[in-house]
Amino acid sequence: MNSTYVHEVKLPPHYDKNKQYPVIFALHGMGSDERNMLQLMEPLSSDFIIIAIRGSLVQGGGYAYFQIKSIGNPVRELYDASVQGLQQLIMELSSQYAIDPEQRYITGFSQGAIMAMTLALVMGDAIKGIVAMSGYIPKFVKEEYTLQPSPNLSAFISHGDQDHLFPLQLGEDNAAFFRVYTDHVTYMPYSGGHTVTPELYSALQHFLRTNALVTAEDTKGMNEA
């Protein structure tokens, strides 16, 4: 694998390469790292393959996927490079591990949420669902990228009503934008700031488990038909 992205993989207990598993690609916020997201996704590790990906740019004591000119205004060249690089890595890892191609999920917080939403918009049927916590969709993505999200995409979008970095309106805008493309949008405004609250933590786990279970049952039904 030629990817420049450091990543950590946690396989379910009794992992069997001859089976297929749902996967969560976990993307961190600016200044954080892959270990933070791996820890956050730990309660789901018995049911999913968890792959936490580190941004390729050094940011303070952590890392980033892109730099910004100002809030809401990413450096376009760095942003484009990360979108392309993460797409490539997701597909490479999908062939390396026993990943169900119908059950690829991306979770992200802050900058990771920004990337998760963008990847879902451009990768089509390759992405089954996303959890986007406290992010936004850059204007140039909406206006200049080729958008082809799956109509079956399940999107869980959350935003704190006291977020000091990104106002709540951005979360509402994110949900409205995805509703143009899919009927499967869950929007959760919550009481809190730019952080993952216990309420949000419980809700995102329920969303991922429920969606993976439904997908698995649908696939089983198709195979038996």
TrEMBL record:
Superkingdom classification of source: Bacteria
GO MF terms held by the record: hydrolase activity
Transmembrane segments: none
Keywords tagged on the record: Hydrolase, Signal
Limits of the Phospholipase/carboxylesterase/thioesterase domain: 18-211
Pfam families named in the record: Abhydrolase_2
Matching Gene3D superfamilies: alpha/beta hydrolase
Family annotation (SUPFAM superfamilies): alpha/beta-Hydrolases
Protein name in the entry: Esterase
